[in-house]
Amino acid sequence: MSWHPTGEVIVDKRGTSLILSGRFNIGLNMIKKLIGPVSRGDVVIVKDENGEFLGEGFYEEIGSVGVRMLTFKDRISLDLIDERMKNALDMRKRMKLGNYFRLVHSESDLLPGLIIDFYNDIASITSTSVGFDARIKDIANILIKLGARAVFARNDSRTRRQIDLPLWKGKIAGEGPSDTIIDEEGVLFHVDVLKGQKTGFFIDQRINRISLRRYISKGDNVLDLFSYTGGFGLHAAVEGANVTAVDESDYAEEEIVRNAELNKVKINFIKRNVKELKIEGEYDVVIADPPALIPSIDRKDAGKKAYLTLNTKIMNIVRKGGFIFTFSCSQFLSQEELKGIVIKAGDKSGRNIKLLNGVLGQSPDHPVDPKHPWTGYLKGFIVNCT
């Protein structure tokens, strides 16, 4: 599909103000007029009510988004997209992230609506943009030039379902299988970009999994809730802990067994919904990394109650002097709100708590654009309980 504009979009004063402040996503209700043949996914010229050029973007007309800006005062081209992806790769190389990383983190890398992860020589793309959907083969070709052996699409996310984009996944370019083995500071993980959750693995938690290890002593009893393929639990097991992992997914069970074998450790796996699990005994360290319990703003009150219930539950089972790693990946819950929930859970469970190491966040290959705060969705705390 062409990278040349097909028509023009005139935005109102609110839209103009957002664009001039560097915002990428312009609401459908801020569009005053379409000029020329404009269809969903087309590149369009964006102007203010006086006809002044503001930039170019994709005409989306999806959910509440009318236009996704890609340039301000410049013109869109495939060469420009290529340059932005190369710049993103150069930044990740400077981070010395090893053999897997997030290459493109949407607005933070000037490519709104696009997520790209690398696992060795496999690239996994997730799009929430009609414009990028229509040009996904162009993106795949750039990735091949950047070193990918194979490029896969994971366009089956909950976000796509919520905004009525078609759900699909599969190979776009290149050769070879969809799975590989990655190395995270000496801990090995099998990753399948077509079968796993999200793009195959939770790359955003890298720094927190590694940080966990300094809180683990040999012989500790560790509980890894919502374990998925064993990210936190495997790091604890490698340090000599006795690990129990809990997840309700068949795939998680299969993969955690495989990953334990890869690392020559043992993990006790319980296939259960954490909400329904009756937890007995005491643990030295508990990790709780649930899926987003607030998937949409209208479910915020219920989600906050769910976070409180979860954190109270785990504070009742961590031993005196033990540690909790608790997280939220919901963009609708702020750091301060999660902190308040943790404090309230401490009060409800009768525990004295200390928060260690400030606020935990996502790994640096998931940079945060302060103008688009949802790019910094992951937050967490290390809690010492007495």
TrEMBL record:
For this chain, one GO molecular function annotation is:
methyltransferase activity
Query: Domain S-adenosylmethionine-dependent methyltransferase spans what residues?
Result: 179-293
UniProt-listed InterPro entries: PUA-like_sf, PUA_sf, RlmI-like_PUA, SAM-dep_methyl-trfase, SAM-dependent_MTases_sf
Give the UniProt keywords, A-Z. Cytoplasm, Methyltransferase, S-adenosyl-L-methionine, Transferase
Annotated protein name in UniProt: Class I SAM-dependent rRNA methyltransferase
An example GO CC term for this entry is:
cytoplasm
PROSITE patterns given in the database record: PUA
Which terms does the UniProt entry file under GO BP? methylation
Per the record, the domain of life is: Archaea
Q: Where in the cell is it found?
A: Cytoplasm
Species of origin: Candidatus Methanodesulfokora washburnensis
Q: Can you give the residue ranges of the RlmI-like PUA domain?
A: 9-72
Family from the record: Belongs to the methyltransferase superfamily. RlmI family.
